[in-house]
Amino acid sequence: MNGLTLFFLRSGSNKWLLQRFAAVIVLSYIVFLICVLIIRPEMDYSDWVNLNKAIPMRFFSFLTVLSLSVHAWIGMWCVFTDYITVRLIGPKADFIRKGCILLLTLTAAFYVLWVFKILWSI
User: Fold this and answer.
1) How far is CA 54 from CA 18, 86, 113, in A?
2) Among 29, 45, 52, 55, which residue's CB has the most CB atoms within a 10 Å radius?
3) How many helices (H) and strands (E) does the chain have?
């Protein structure tokens, strides 16, 4: 198995810590955008485009989307593993849970790659 897979198979403490770290990044991005809008309330479209063309802003935006995806993935993984169980669903629960996690992983990866394409094509 690769390192990323092993990381996500570790204890719940690692997932909890990663989710909190991702939340801090998303919060930082939101605070940054609010500050920009407070400092520059007269921003027009060209100012907004220029802000988003800057490499640090592209990096920060991508990091935020990546963090949001990781945060959502961990949260949904917790929901799936807590509520899609053999005791609650029946003998097909393991198959259903693995399918849900696979669909979640593919969806998150699709959105991250889509945002990457958008951010770096500006």
Assistant:
1) 27, 50, 19
2) 29
3) 5, 0
pLDDT band at 11 (very low <50, low <70, confident <90, very high): confident
pLDDT tens for 47-81 read 999 999 999 999 999 999 999 999 999 999 999 99
Tokens of 94: 């393991």
CATH fold, domain 3-119, is: 3 helical TM bundles of succinate and fumarate reductases (1.20.1300)
Write out the E strands in 1-122.
Answer: none
Strand, helix or coil at 121? coil
> How many CA atoms, within 13 angstroms, populate the side-chain half-sphere of residue 62?
18
* CA–CA dist 33, 15 (Å, integer): 27
Dihedral Cα 14, 74, 6, 27, nearest 10 deg: -60
- The alpha carbons of the chain give a radius of gyration, in whole angstroms, of 18
- Total-model pTM: 0.83
Angle formed at CA 32 by CA 28 and CA 33, multiple of 5 degrees: 120
What's the token pair of residue 86? 């053999």
Tokens at residue 56, please? 């640090």
